[in-house]
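so the lab meeting is tmrw and i was supposed to have these ready like two days ago... anyway. pasting both below. for each one the top line is the aa sequence and the line under it is the structure tokens. i havent really looked at them closely yet so no promises
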Amino acid sequence: MSSLKPQVKNPMLCTSADGEECSAHGAGHALSTMHGRLASATPSKWRDGIAGDTTDDGWTPIALLEPDAAGDNIVWVWNHARGLVASGEPVALHSVYGALAVGAARFNVLVAASIA
């Protein structure tokens, strides 16, 4: 994975209006109860990182504190709700279930590449 922003156009369109809770449970949308429980049940798969500036189309670079299996330290994630995380904020990214932890909050994210 490089530090180049992914060139994905409209990764998943959401039918929820701004301010409404998302009803979709695909990558980058609402975190289902089961999804959250699976991520919580596998604590060894969380990777610590620092969030970068979110782009206008919702992609956020995560600078992993330890490189992933491919040796990359920048992973791009997307969520339809912009403003989940501030630039420079510490986060944790689940390498199996595509969950992003920001403090006590958990979000479902689309990950641009594997971080196993």
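ok protien two:
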Amino acid sequence: MRYTKTDWKHDLDDAPVLYISAFDDTGYEAMRVEVFRNGERRYADRTTAPEEGIWLANTTLAEVLALTDPDDEMFTVEIDQETFASYWNVAVNKYFDKGRV
């Protein structure tokens, strides 16, 4: 697995400001945490049906890592498993329970 953190700069109150993602060996997203301005964290993965408003992207790791300009609306950096786990292990989905990373 490889892990990313994507910042999304916007003024919307009901949209995430961070996407924390895990990508599998094929380069596609396998797990996602969305972090909102108010601190709420939601998750989705391949083994659970996504909560309304959160789902896995059909975007490759290469496409996400191409968001390299910190002045752009979206900016991605690669993170380690420990950092990913710090988000994943506290994210919630009111419809499902998940395992810890």
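from a quick look at the 2nd one: Residues 2-88 form one domain. The longest strand covers residues 16-23. will dig more after coffe
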